[in-house]
Design a protein that fits this description.
The protein is an alpha+beta fold and 253 residues long. The protein has two domains: 134 residues, Fructose-1,6-Bisphosphatase, subunit A, domain 1 (Fructose-1,6-Bisphosphatase, Chain A, domain 1, 2-Layer Sandwich), CATH 3.30.540.10; 110 residues, D-Maltodextrin-Binding Protein, domain 2. The protein is 33% helix and 28% strand. The protein has seven helices and 14 strands. A hairpin with a 2-residue loop joins strand 5 and strand 6. It starts with a helix and ends with a helix. The structure holds D-MYO-inositol-1-phosphate (IPD). D-MYO-inositol-1-phosphate binds next to strand 4 and strand 12.
């Protein structure tokens, strides 16, 4: 089934690569700088239609949905058709399609694909995580030995001060800071040892679901600010890190 999901996501990537006149089809959503393009909707519809053929009994939760199906039921796909929509609108070329498959509320498969770099991250529970066929193993990077990525909660400006308070502490410890604009890729980049740690004070399940299993299967850690497991049904804070950086983060706060 993972192979079928990867194949579908790869084809969906073509929709993103062939996009044109993106700015003509933009609508605003709730919060500041929160947009949806006609391509977000097109990619999501394509994924629904094709993934339904692979697993007809599955429920769906997608970022661009009005309705929310049940993630606790048997199978549920949790989908972000374009994670990094603002990057996509401004041709920043760092966005991803993210698909997580939950079974009884736990993620069992994840696929995150950046069509601009043709990089596909994927994992299945108990079978490891991979980037384009190469196995991913999280190393023991400490915060002081790596780059840290932050998420700025752009749709929740009430969290700005706290975000930058924590960022200041991380910046003083880490080699440097990045803000990439795609949470799914940030988490996968921790799995690939490109980042020692990534944090954001609020994310929705479609931002983190697919990537979370890629990170844990690679040997990394992911949880909330309260060091709890991710809920997958609800928005929450997300800390993703190598095991050493993860422990360090909570001491640093
Ligand atoms: C957003 C991106 C961004 C993060 C936001 C997310 P979207 O997803 O992942 O990096 O900071 O919190 O909502 O809206 O582009 O799918």
């Amino acid at each position: 089934m993972l192979k079928k999901i990867k194949d579908i996501v790869k084809v969906a990537g073509e929709i993103i690569l062939n996009a044109h006149h993106i700015k003509d089809g933009i609508e605003s959503k709730e919060g500041r700088a929160n947009f949806v393009t006609s391509y977000d909707v097109e990619v999501q519809n394509f994924l629904y239609q094709e993934l339904k053929k692979v697993l007809p009994e599955a429920a769906f939760i997608g970022e661009e949905d009005k309705k929310r199906e049940n993630v606790i039921g048997d199978y549920c796909f949790i989908i972000d058709p374009i994670d990094g929509t603002t990057n996509f609108i401004f041709d920043y070329r760092h966005s991803a399609i993210s698909v997580g498959l939950a079974f009884h509320g736990q993620i069992i498969m994840g696929v995150v694909y950046n069509p601009f770099l043709n990089e596909m991250f994927y994992a299945e529970k108990g079978k490891g995580a991979f980037l384009n066929g190469r196995k991913l193993n999280v190393s023991g990077l400490m915060i002081s030995e790596g780059i840290v990525a932050i998420g700025t909660c752009p749709y929740h400006r009430e969290l700005t001060d706290e975000t930058f308070r924590i960022t200041r502490k991380l910046y003083d410890t880490a080699l440097d800071i990045r803000r990439t604009g795609s949470a799914a890729l940030d988490i996968c980049y921790v799995a690939a040892n490109r980042f020692a740690l990534y944090f954001e004070l609020i994310l929705s399940p479609w931002d983190y679901a697919g990537a979370s299993i890629i990170l844990t299967e690679a040997g990394g850690c992911i949880g909330t600010m309260e060091k709890k497991e991710l809920p997958y049904r609800l928005p929450c804070s997300v800390i993703a890190a190598s095991p050493r950086a993860y422990e360090e983060f909570y001491q640093l706060l």
